[in-house]
């Protein structure tokens, strides 16, 4: 009876703690999610492609300004997730980012459940806490942005956790293969990190020796079937053009040369993780020192069962493989290593929970105090970042057109000598009133029926307006949107 009561109390404490943690995670992921201005990089590019898929009805070819996009060379799964967000939350920033935030939350829950089943309640809580307060995982091109990375990290995490579960049940290996395939349909070549990790796990676990032809066939089919189905349908539209660009630009050029100014040395990603994760790294370093003393020596690692060694090799490879691959690639972009954070949270959770169970009292106190202090510190930083919104006055001007009658589907020109549309302005125009932005010049605007013109204040004069028979439709401190009077 006492054991049942103790179990129930521990379970109740665990459930209450997880409810609080999930509430914090939901706050970190969804607070002001739709209020931050659109980012004029990948987020807006993906948002435009998803919107244009909805308008054209073609869900296989991603376009930008209604032309096939051979710069953003990603398969369509991330665009479909944004489409779903638009359907649920509307054509706005919340709809753009909704799927990413949900995937971030699901990743935290998935890690917590895995750790609960494999390592216990305390490990589950600590891993979830680490991931919930991981700044880069939340805010840097990830769970709070309309980029493909949050969905990719979710699928990457699902693939590796399934791989780790396959040590006890071979069927999970096929889930891992499917996770790779869906990750490829989200982020393209990045997903081959999963293939390498699967290979290392199968080799060091010795499972490859026991695989029958049927096992290999099912694993291969789970990994390639969704990709081949997509490739067959995509081929119908532009033949090999998209696939050639995927290989030559998105794989070979990014790997062998520095593009778009994304430079960095071999230690670039180590510095990035230190920048966003330094306090958790300090705790991890302390835990490793404890577990590499005389009591926990390398000799004890050799005494592990093959399945347990393979398990640890799988987790460590989850961190090391992406770091190595992207460190040797010439193009360095900080969010490429986002998938390592769930793995780091798992390692910290495992080691911390073991120390609490087996360590000395003083070490336990220091560890738990450090975990609480670090998580509180990162949570305060996240809260400050989420509370500070810098408005984009140009986007606000475009968004003032929402609800204006008679302009849906009009062309929008940009009165700017450079004639360059920021990507977030293109997205804002499409989401606001289905406006079709044009790269044409001012003379083309004057010749075009049903056309609007975005004019910054420094280009505006009363003489200019009168000479061209223009009238202001909306305005703000940045400038005006005008139309031609009849």
From TrEMBL:
<dbReference type="Pfam" id="PF13231">
    <property type="entry name" value="PMT_2"/>
</dbReference>
<dbReference type="InterPro" id="IPR038731">
    <property type="entry name" value="RgtA/B/C-like"/>
</dbReference>
<keyword id="KW-1133">Transmembrane helix</keyword>
<feature type="transmembrane region" description="Helical">
    <location>
        <begin position="151"/>
        <end position="167"/>
    </location>
</feature>
<feature type="transmembrane region" description="Helical">
    <location>
        <begin position="310"/>
        <end position="329"/>
    </location>
</feature>
<feature type="transmembrane region" description="Helical">
    <location>
        <begin position="96"/>
        <end position="116"/>
    </location>
</feature>
<feature type="transmembrane region" description="Helical">
    <location>
        <begin position="335"/>
        <end position="356"/>
    </location>
</feature>
<feature type="transmembrane region" description="Helical">
    <location>
        <begin position="12"/>
        <end position="31"/>
    </location>
</feature>
<protein>
    <recommendedName>
        <fullName>Glycosyltransferase RgtA/B/C/D-like domain-containing protein</fullName>
    </recommendedName>
</protein>
<keyword id="KW-0328">Glycosyltransferase</keyword>
<feature type="transmembrane region" description="Helical">
    <location>
        <begin position="173"/>
        <end position="204"/>
    </location>
</feature>
<dbReference type="GO" id="GO:0005886">
    <property type="term" value="C:plasma membrane"/>
</dbReference>
<dbReference type="GO" id="GO:0010041">
    <property type="term" value="P:response to iron(III) ion"/>
</dbReference>
<feature type="transmembrane region" description="Helical">
    <location>
        <begin position="268"/>
        <end position="290"/>
    </location>
</feature>
<dbReference type="GO" id="GO:0009103">
    <property type="term" value="P:lipopolysaccharide biosynthetic process"/>
</dbReference>
<keyword id="KW-0472">Membrane</keyword>
<keyword id="KW-0808">Transferase</keyword>
<keyword id="KW-0812">Transmembrane</keyword>
<feature type="domain" description="Glycosyltransferase RgtA/B/C/D-like">
    <location>
        <begin position="74"/>
        <end position="230"/>
    </location>
</feature>
<keyword id="KW-1003">Cell membrane</keyword>
<feature type="transmembrane region" description="Helical">
    <location>
        <begin position="216"/>
        <end position="233"/>
    </location>
</feature>
<dbReference type="GO" id="GO:0016763">
    <property type="term" value="F:pentosyltransferase activity"/>
</dbReference>
<dbReference type="InterPro" id="IPR050297">
    <property type="entry name" value="LipidA_mod_glycosyltrf_83"/>
</dbReference>
